[in-house]
Structures are given as structure tokens and as C-alpha cells.
Amino acid sequence: MGQARWEQRLGDHHTERMGELVGIGGCILVFAGGAVLTFGVDWRLKGVDVPVVGVILMIAGLIGLLAYCAVYRRRRLLGRLSDTEIVEERRYHQDY
What we know:
By secondary structure, the chain is an all-alpha fold. It contains 3 helices and no strands. Helix 1 packs across helix 2 and helix 2 runs antiparallel to helix 3. The mean pLDDT is 77.
């Protein structure tokens, strides 16, 4: 099913919410994967420090989540402002 049909079927607001959940879910997934590599695995790979890779993934997930929340908060505030109706009035004066 194409993107246009999904938007038509679910509505624009619902597809926007799905994108938000994927963004938050992706960040949490990266963070959780890093935590598993840091605390739950005792693999040894030659030339790779697995716990350090886990810490890096945890930091990346946290930064992604914070950045996403900051962008979403800003978008939500701007969305409220754009819901207000703006009326533009023009007056034309003719010199006779």
C-alpha cells in the first residue's frame, strides 16, 4: 500500500504520530542495545572493546532522544501558534 493511500486511510495526524513513535522507539532501541552490550554480554572480540561500543551506543541513543524531544517540543509549540487564524486586512486609498 503506497504512502498516499496510508495517509488517506489513516489521516495526516495519525501518520505524523507514527513517525514520532518510530523516532522515540529507535532511540530507545539504540540505548537498550548499548546497555545490553555494556552490561549483559561478556564477548571478547580481538581489536574491539564491546563494553565501550555499548557505552557509545547508549550515549548516541540518549543524544538522539534528547534532540528528538527538543525538536518535537518546538514543533508542538509552533503548531499551536499556527492553529490561530490570521486575518490580513488591506486598505487602499485613492487620491482624487
